[in-house]
Design a protein that fits this description.
- The structure is a single chain.
- It contains 14 helices and four strands.
- The chain is mainly α.
- The chain has one domain (about 50-350).
- Strands 1-4 form a two-stranded antiparallel sheet. A two-stranded antiparallel ribbon has the order 2-3.
- β2 (about 200) and β3 (about 200-205) form a beta hairpin.
- α3 crosses α10.
- The longest helix has about 35 residues, at about 1-35.
- The chain is globular, with a radius of gyration of 24 Å.
- The two termini are about 40 Å apart.
- About 35% of the residues are buried.
């Protein structure tokens, strides 16, 4: 019986994966078409702002996917994943600033405008290489990955778990935020990076470029999802879930728990960094506010709303929560934090499996109703000869 139950659950998950990937493909086809091919006068036209907004939503969805991998499957609640997202964004922003060259306000071919304004005489050593796109891509992966490796190695070797780990990850992103706010750090201070011109020679003001960036973002969401799904479905994935459910027992069985946790933590940090790198050219700015602990908390709420431990639920939750944020911060700005808190409380109390778990709950209710109807008919058939 256990074997057939496992097969049924795997089939259900594969069905959800197929629907999810088909939805991404549909979005990648329809939205660029509505933006580029449909006339502006049409009611179905998607504005350039709307296209960029969707790209922003899916960058945050990719970040939520990274958080769901470590929280939903390994039980590691990180409240600092916004730091890895921001570091990936800064790595891409440094490349975009070097791409401006002499077209900046001050016309300096080497120094970005903010460095000229602050009387920097030469380019800092950690800016070397960012005039090459390939080097920037390497840093997008390497910087968040190395930080997560160093931080996770000390934390997991010290067996820091639970709320203590959440607190120190929050402290990490807060410390980075304070550091990046300083002008002498060489990252633009509180203004950060903006006024980008192009990326690999293509004008960032072009709608076609943003349509391509959206398609690349959706492709990276799909690839990240596939990688995460492959991991959680493997033998290592079973060990990871065992760590989530009973860490001490898993360690007692001889597994190196620290190594598994470190692997998942570094991978999720790399995914978050890639999401940040895709975010910057679509939004057109990166500043220290992306390190704010509240951003990391919002992503955790997105995962809880969508459905923890489902992967595609995290993507759905991130898109819906960020859409709600866009609406409320425009219509009723002062109410957003209250709405966010109420949403988290309501989902925790009434939808512990999130939005994607709601469909399973409804199917169970429907199945129970059908079972009751069948039972009623069987009892009716038994009474039928007596009535005659």
């Amino acid at each position: 019986m256990h074997k057939y139950t496992t097969v049924w659950v795997s089939a259900r998950r594969d069905t959800g994966t197929k629907w999810f990937l088909c939805g991404l493909v549909l979005i990648a086809i329809v939205l660029p078409y509505l933006n580029l091919a449909v006339p502006v006068s049409s009611a179905f036209h998607l504005s350039n702002y709307g296209l960029r907004l969707v790209g922003k939503y899916f960058c945050y969805a990719m970040l939520a996917l990274a958080v769901d991998l470590i929280w939903g499957y390994c039980g590691i609640l990180s409240l600092g994943h916004g730091a890895f997202f921001a570091l990936g964004g800064y790595a891409m922003g440094m490349y975009l600033m070097r791409e401006i060259g002499p077209r900046g306000v001050y016309g300096n071919p080497v120094l970005p405008d903010f460095m000229v304004f602050l009387n920097w005489k030469s380019l800092p050593w950690y800016w070397y290489g960012f005039n090459h796109f390939g080097f920037a891509l390497l840093m997008v992966v390497l910087v968040p990955g190395v930080l997560a490796l160093a931080f996770g190695w000390f934390a997991f070797r010290s067996r820091v778990t639970g709320v203590y780990f959440s607190i120190i990850t929050q402290a990490l992103t807060y410390a980075l935020m304070l550091g990046f706010f300083r002008n002498d750090m060489g990252f633009g201070g509180n203004n950060g990076f903006t006024d980008f011109k192009d990326i690999v020679g293509f004008n960032l003001d072009s709608p076609r470029v943003h349509a391509v960036l959206l398609v690349i973002t959706l492709a990276m969401v799909a690839l990240s999802y596939a990688a995460c799904r492959a991991i959680v479905a493997s033998r290592a994935g079973r060990v990871i879930r065992a760590i989530r459910d009973a860490e001490s027992r898993t360690r007692f069985l001889g597994y190196r728990v620290e190594n598994y946790k470190l692997f998942v933590f570094v991978l999720s940090a790399v995914i978050a960094g890639i999401a940040g790198a895709l975010y910057v050219p679509q939004i057109g700015i990166i500043n220290p506010s992306e390190f704010a602990p509240l951003n990391s908390i919002e992503i955790v709420i997105c995962v809880a709303v969508g459905g923890r431990g489902t992967l595609y639920g995290a993507v759905v939750g991130a898109v819906l929560v960020n859409y709600a944020k866009t609406y409320f911060t425009t219509a009723i700005p002062e109410a957003w934090n209250y709405v966010l808190g109420a949403l988290f409380v309501l989902v925790t109390l009434f939808l512990p499996r999130g939005i994607v778990g709601l469909s399973s709950y409804l199917r169970v209710l429907l199945r129970g109703r059908r079972g009751a109807i069948r039972q009623f008919r069987m009892e009716s058939d038994k009474l039928e000869p007596t009535r005659k």
